[in-house]
Amino acid sequence: MDFLNKAFEQIKDLFVSMTPGSRIIAGLLVVAIVTSVAFLFQTNMFQKDVPILSGSPIAPADQKAILAAFASETLDDYEVIGSQIYVPRSRRVDYIAALVKNNAIPPDFHDSMSDAIGQASPFESEAHRSDRQKVAREKEMALVLRNMRGIEYASVQYDIEDKGGFPRKKVYTASVVVRPSGSEEIDFKTVKSVQNYVAHSIAGLSAEQVSVTDLNTRRTFSGSDNDLASVNDDPYASRKKWFEEHWTETIDNALRFISGNNVTVNVELDPEMNRIEKGIKYDPRPTPLASMAEKSSEVRRTPTNAGEPGLNAQAPQGPNRATALSGARMSEQTSESNREETLAVTNQDYTQKQVASLTPKRVTVSVSIPSQYYVDVWNSRNPPAAGQQANAPDPGELKKIEDETKKTVEKTVVTLLPEQALGDDPYPQVYVWTAPQLPETPTPELVVADSAMAWVATNWQTLATIGFAVVGLMMLRSMLSSGAGAAEQSDAVKLEDPAADQAKDDKKEDQPDGSMQGLLKKRFAQGSGPNLKNELADMVREDPDTALGILQTWIGSPN
């Protein structure tokens, strides 16, 4: 505290000794310095406006409701920047209260469904309840789509048509309208994601029945034509890309001993998909399982003559009927039959084979080798002697090394590719060529002057602020120095006062010249002697008590 008191007293004395004009200029300079430092080291403590929702992005549809809530509460000190709404820090609570009062807080997931369930009533009809839940589900899906990256606005509508009949059949359709961020066009990957999300959110709806309309380009994507439009969803393109990346990585690993090589692979696939082969083969010789043989004979006897004529012959049989004493002559017929049955099974072979789809049919590879690699190989085979420079390689030797390297690369790559039909030359699959070594273009060094000018162009505001502060401090220092000089010269420029001069002379006469105080003042007034410090030391040595009293009086006196 003593240090602060002394510093304050020194500043106070300095300020009192300044002229009114110097005081005004010094005050302005202090204000300028403080302002410059504030702009130089600006931080969040100087921030006036803050995001109303702590930085959470606000969709354009939600911004309209928020601005309407501000208008209803007569709050107009806000600023909309992109997806943020900035409000004054001191009144942020009032703005949030306006959102709560007008129910303008952006909805969260499941809020629409929760409200629909909460508004249920036992007296409403089933159709009304179904429509309310349908609208809530549409709002929920639209909210989810608006939170997708790149989608600024989204609206979802779906419908269910009852076809009737037996069995009853329902047809589901959905329509999605989106506006991408800015003026961008929606990509096919986003379209596929939107269709899959809506289809999986509604039971019974397929992605082919979901259409997506882009408001920026006025183009509609339906599930029927989306498969051909999207390359990422094309199975042929996806499988082709996978095989090319697989063989490129495999060949790169095999040719790792060649520095600077470049491998390019092209794969042609068999376009046939989902082929299933089924076959049944029967054995020409059946296998008997069981056999049965049957033999039968039959004897028939018939009378040779006709019966007795008259009513007696036609009478019914009975105990009172007369019996003929002599029998009639009979004829006999005998028949025989033979039957054999054999149960046999024919052997059959049932085969079912499913062939892999989109398999590689032809693979071609292109390998480039830098010409510097052959020079490096020649240098490794012909190292220079110790202390000598490397010799220039012979073109013939380089050609020989090039041929050997190409042959080695061809054999290495062919072993990694699918087998070719017999009689075909496998080497056309692999093409090895030499890439010429181009001279390296030296990177221009960055000139110090250019870099300095670029740095100044970026930080000129900071430099100007620092320069302004330094100039202010120098001006303040020069004014303080000029104020002290003006005080010393004030006696030389003031008008003469005879009465005051006579009083000073009388006072000087009252003081004895021989006193230590008078002698000391006289010597200091005259400024004689080589050094005032040495003279003061001599006076203290001659009469220490008197010199001490004089010094205490001078130090304690304000003038």
Automatic annotation (TrEMBL):
Keywords: Membrane, Transmembrane, Transmembrane helix
Keyword Membrane part of the UniProt annotation: yes
Superkingdom of origin organism: Bacteria
Primary site of residence: membrane
Ranges of compositional bias, category Basic and acidic residues: 491-511
A Pfam family it matches: YscJ_FliF
Gene Ontology cellular component list: membrane
Subcellular location: Membrane
Region of interest: Disordered: 279-344, 489-534
Transmembrane segments: 21-41
Flagellar M-ring N-terminal domain residues: 59-217
Entry protein name: Flagellar M-ring N-terminal domain-containing protein
Provenance organism: Bremerella alba
